[in-house]
Input
Amino acid sequence: MKKTWPLRALLHALALAAALLMAGPLLLMLMNSFKSGAELSQGSFLAWPQAFSGSAWREAWTLLRGSFASSLMLAVPAVLLSSLLAALNGFVLCKYRFRGEQWVSLLLIVAFFLPVKVYLLPLAISMAKLGLSKSLGLLIAIHVIYSLPLALFFRNHFLGFPDELLQAARLDGAGFWSLFTRLVLPLSRPIFVVVIILQFTTLWNEYLFGLVFGPDEARPITAALAQLAAHSEGGVRAYNLEMAAALLAALPTLAVYLIAGRHFARGLVAGAVKG
Amino acid sequence: MHLLTRFGFSDRSSALWLITPGLLLGALFFYGFLAWTAWLSLTRSGMLPSHEFVGLLQYQRLFEDPRWLAALWNLLRFASLFVALPLLIGLGLAVLLDQKLRAEGVLRWIYLHPMALSMIVTGSAWRWLMDPDQGLAEGLRALGWASFRWDWLADEDMAVYALVVAAVWQISGFVMALFLAGLRGIDESLVQAARLDGASGWTLYRRVLLPQLGPSLFSALLILLPAAIKTFDLVVALTEGGPGQSSELPAFYMFQMAFERSRLGLGAASSMVMLMMVLAVALPYALARSRGDARRRAGA
Output
């Protein structure tokens, strides 16, 4: 396609303008997070910081460091457990026939779409009745259970997995477990990367379960951030602190996105099309 | 036909036993609790769960509650824009990125990065950006545009559109990724044939490429519509339902009733209505999908 240069320039200008609009919020947050408390009262929201101050970041870290650790201790095991379980379920659901399998797949797909609000109330009631106190362990268990539909990702992936390979391993006398750990897991690394990234983003960013079932003394970071924002209202409105806190909460997922953006996009698209 | 089944390998039973407990637990937590919520919505449950069956009384109360009706109206306003704007912006960005621009990778990264953020982060950020007294509006006034005002967050009629702004910012890049994947997946021979017929530029897109994006559009709708119905975190972080109750959405109403106001039956009824809405969108897809899967596997 031949295009004259003014058109190419226009297209680039458009793309750049869109990029500035999209990046604007994060850049403004970054800029304002480096302002000192004193500068908030005199300076303007769009003014460049007179002197770069790390005080807001230090304060945000002091306030949120417990929650940051909580979220990390929650997300890492929950992501690993739920992904492994999804691989196991997805593999079996894909490669073994059983009665009612169509129902299982229908229920899994629908579960993918169910609003949390539809099961939140009984979940809270039964956790209270069982006397299970709010804790990270409970939260991890809840996340793992409600991540079961992730199995669909693996099931779709294993559709392209050659049966002959499994067949050969079986003829060599491999039982299910060695089949799964020695053959299936190593061959599903690409889908693992996608699922782990997607699941880490989801769980790190999750709010409602963390609010309701997270330990009060060290809530996950999204719940802590929401609380921080709600509390500052009426009092001193320290947006430098809130910007730093919000960026702190966003840092891990942004870092993952920076390193593995391609897989992230692939996961989102695959999840949308195939989920 | 699966080759495996004919031999009846012994690993089959261990495989099925292995996944059964997890799936049963999942069935209980998803569908058992769903049934429990349905039951709660038919009882007199207030502060505490009750077993007194009252028929559809809670639903009657729900649809007589102006606050719920307002939440539904807000959802209609929110959802129509939350679907339409990302589709337009996403399509525009995808077509733009499809022009073999320089630094395409960087641009794509920038367009998509809000998807990596939590709705709570997005809400906190936009709450300051749109703050009538201290945010962007103040910044622009300080730069010399003395009359500039942007006070949607303080305006009962406009607060829902503040939610739209933040949500559209977050999700448009995702829709772009869907459309871009669609555009890049189009068979090159189709494009070549159209070129030979003299189609180029805008005509090529309008006549040949965009009509191929049906599946991408379908995926986008399948994500956007349920997401709109479920929107909760953003309301918490950006408007807290306010000013007053002017920007409450159904999911926020449900949480308020069930967890703050101790009206369990009413909260349960509102969540069942949300369920109906989501199922209306997702169930046809889920049915078609699970049937298609069965065929694919049988044919594999």
Notes: Chain B has 14 helices and no strands.
